[in-house]
User: What shape does this take?
Amino acid sequence: MSYSDFSLSKVKRNFNLTTVENGRFLPETQSIEPSFYLKEALSEGLPLATATGSEKARSELIISPILVEVRKILERKVSFFSGEDFTVAPELGLSGVCDFLISRSPEQIFIEAPAIVIIEAKKADLKPGLGQCAAEMIAAQKFNETNNIPIKIIYGSVSSGTAWRFLKLEGQTLSIDLNDYAVPPVEILLGMLVWMIREG
Assistant: This one.
């Protein structure tokens, strides 16, 4: 069993989660102006990824440049992983690959605690990715505890590149923001992601 086998109801049942479905749980964050690099990357990548429609294209041409920008804004004091194995507890089904993971550690060679944000890429319909993302967030929570760097909140997102839906795991409470945040514009999203990593 792996992360991709989890539906939201299965995660909730297996890990005794309480789910809260409502609006935005993040505070109003300050928008961040994208760099010339990100503007150029998105002006080329957005139409291309949208036209091809594949998860891989959306990951590489939209999501990845945005997360590289976030790392740059945070002065490279965080690490950013794409497609890394993140097997934490295979006996619980918490095994497999995360599309994207951000850690507050600057170490880039391998994943070090604390893992703080998990992002799962999907083609268009975001709903099926919620269970997988939630399972990866539980794995991050356990990974941080095992490494003696427990943190209060893990954030997650299921994203098509042009739409982002956010989750928050605090203890055994999983909050799901039912709003989808659109890109473009990217300024609001950059502000939200930077806040999650700095303040979350």
